[in-house]
Amino acid sequence: MNTSNVHIHARDITVSFPLRRAGIRSTGAKTAHKALDGVSFELAPGARVGLLGRNGSGKSTLLRTLAGVYPVTSGALEMEGRVAAIFNASLGFVQEATGLENIYLRGAMLGLSFDQIRELVPSIVEFSELGDWIREPIHRYSSGMALRLAFSITTAVRSDILLLDEWLGAGDAAFLRKARARMQTMVKDASIVVLATHNLNLMRNQCNQAMVLEEGRLVFFGDLDTAIETYQEFRQLTQL
């Protein structure tokens, strides 16, 4: 597709969960927790956006909402472009199905046709280094094996919008080296990148702007250095 059409437009989006699901006891008339509360922003090609915020601020919720895992409760979210989300090794896997069967299942979730997936299977299996394990059920895999397969599938096709929850940090050293090299290529090739991380050095290396979230609200979006200063101010206030 024409990369100039790739975009993310969020207009006053709110994502709410029932208090029991959010792990909070209901008090009075309040029955839902707003994980995101009236968040608005627009991202165009070239955006490399870091998400900053304390634990529970809404970073992961925003990423999963952009990935289509969580529905928007109110407001409007418009996204154009193929999306790749790297933050959950088990998402979309059927535990009783084989690794090979899960390649087709997750490929379908990514919007690929059967023929497209079939063409990608050899390179996915090779990159994952699973060998004959690819024909075994996922429930027999170690967490590292599941991660390798999930990463290999998700990164097998070019994405216009890349969503990352922290940098890849699991698996054996040899696989990590080639996985990080592939991630660098994906970041370079993607039109839009959104990265949630507590690693400020990583954010400075990968991002050109940032959002600061606090209690589900977007309190700053813009210059990276200013965003980091804003985030650190919030951290200091909570430590007083």
Structure overview:
The chain is of the alpha/beta class and 240 residues long. It has seven helices and nine strands. Strands 5-6-7-3-8-9 form a six-stranded mixed β-sheet, with helices on both faces. A three-stranded antiparallel β-sheet has the order 2-1-4, with helices on one face. The N and C termini lie far apart (50 Å).
Q: How widely separated are the two ends?
A: 50 Å
Q: What name goes with the CATH superfamily of the largest domain? A: P-loop containing nucleotide triphosphate hydrolases
How many helical stretches? 7
- Rounded to an integer, what's the Rg over CA atoms? 19 Å
Could you name the CATH class of the largest domain? Alpha Beta
Overall average pLDDT? 88
Q: Tally of extended strands?
A: 9
CATH topology of the largest domain: Rossmann fold
User: Mind telling me which CATH architecture of the largest domain this is?
Assistant: 3-Layer(aba) Sandwich
Quick summary:
By secondary structure, the chain is α/β, with parallel strands linked by helices. The protein has helices at 59-66, 99-109, 114-128, 143-154, 173-189, 200-206, 224-239; strands spanning 7-18, 32-43, 48-52, 74-80, 83-86, 161-165, 192-196, 209-214, 217-223.
